[in-house]
Amino acid sequence: KFNVGPKWPTKNLTYHIASYPKFLRREDVDVEIERAFAVWSEVTDLTFTKKSSKKVDIEIRFEVGDHGDDDSFDGRGKILAHAFLPTDGDVHFDDAELWTIGIGPKNSTNLFVVAAHEFGHSLGLRHSNYYTALMGPLYREYDSNFKLHEDEKAGIQSLYGSKTTTTQPKVPLDDSICTNPKMDTVFQSDQGETIFFKGDKFYKVTDGSVVRGYPKLISERWPGLPSNIDAALTLNKFTIFFKGNLLWCYLGREMLFGFPQSISFNFYFIPDHLDAVLYKGGNEIFFFKGSQFWAYPNPNQPLAPTMISPGMINQHWKGVPDNLDAAFMDSYGYTHLFKGDEYYRIDPMKFNVDLDQDAYPKPIGPIWLGCK
Amino acid sequence: VPIPLSQAKSYLEQYGYLTASSKSLDDTSMRDGSSFVRALREFQEFMGLEVTGDLDAETMRFMSMSRCGVRDRLDTDRL
After folding, report:
1. Residue B76 pLDDT > 60
2. Closest CA to A109 of A79, A129, A130, A137
3. Radius of gyration over alpha carbons of chain B, in Å?
4. What 3-state class would DSSP assign to A248?
5. pLDDT in tens, A114-150
6. How far apart are CA A328 and CA A322, in angstroms?
């Protein structure tokens, strides 16, 4: 039920952020604006390039009250932003709003949600009468599991076609990772992405290669999180990072108040300086260190561990070595355990290494990162 | 015109449910309320509300929500 207006004659668009909101860091705004454009470039061949000059397709401004386009803003609440159809395309945000990133305080307005909506207008979409869809006219709360509604996907693809460039470049942009693919940790994010951490950078990986534009700085996406993380997992939308004797808890991009906290304060009996942590979607979280592992009940269960004393990895996880680097379970239920430049795959129904005809371990670089 | 009604009217005008021609209150269809009711029904339908044509509490709640400043209904290049 989408309705569309005029469209751009090209798929490669440029944008400039002419003014920023008063209360957000510039670099945070840049990331959210890039993410909002990505909502549309992920389902079409549209590309959006940020420019520092004013001569661009889409100009983005944060203004208050009368800002010269005979469409004044009205203070906190009510109208949050507006945009112009192609080929004007400019977007204006009402800077009287309390703009936030991720889940913000009451009466705040999430920048990503509103920006993605207004960019839909900039590209030629009008309001959808699926009022819960992104292009519905009313503001909708931020949902870290945000997905584009089929109606607006059909809308934008009716203007610019479906995405054809599905194959990502096989070799990552800086292939230094290929010479030494040893990871700090690997986990699935709250948005279902497969993320590799190494030093102060993170790689988003899909279809056996690094997504274009990565690596990025960890601190860009998880403000306040240090480098060289030991282990990470996502549980009930919260992503928990472990380093040394501390743990950090994030919801989306926001670190929860009161963190970091000590590991022992949250998980009795679990040691510091972990090698890896694994959540398999059941009632237990597995912690690995050296030759041992601990099976710990899901925090929603009583805190006492199911195993008082740790188990030996080689006794329970046949074929899996000691001193792991990382462990995570993918969305197909396979568990992947990483050590050095190799990884092992565990059959969803068993505890031992997947013994199919291709013997494990396999090299990380060519299979996960698109290395030659 | 009680305040809620005039506010509702300007909301419906602003977002394209009431056409410019029915702007003045002495417009017959406005005076007998039919264009206002028709606009209200369009708004209710667009928002997935029960289409009553009445300015009921749920409709006014929706009209008070934060939203995008782009019009919902009119087809002009610069909405």
Report:
1. no
2. A79
3. 12
4. strand
5. 999 999 999 999 888 776 788 889 998 877 667 788 8
6. 16
Residue type, A241: F
Catalytic-residue membership of A118: yes
Q: For residue A319, what is the DSSP state?
A: T
If you count them, how many residues does chain B have? 79
Chain B contact set for A121 (CB, 8 A): 68, 70, 79
Mean pLDDT, residues B57-79 taken together? 77
What ipTM was predicted for this assembly? 0.82
Asked whether the predicted pLDDT for residue A81 surpasses 50, the reply is yes
What token pair was written down for A101? Answer: 């990133």
- The predicted-structure confidence for B10-29, as pLDDT tens digits, reads as follows 899 889 888 765 555 455 55
CA distance, residue A52 to nearest chain B CA (Å): 26
SS3 call for A289:
strand
**β-sheet bridge partners, residue A239:** A234, A250
CB pairs under 8 A between A and B: 71
Among residues B68, B44, B61, B20, the alpha carbon closest in space to that of A92 is found at B68
The number of beta carbons lying within 10 Å of the beta carbon of residue A49 is 11
Residue with the two structure tokens 């010269």: A68
* Distance between CA atoms of residues A339 and A325, nearest Å: 5
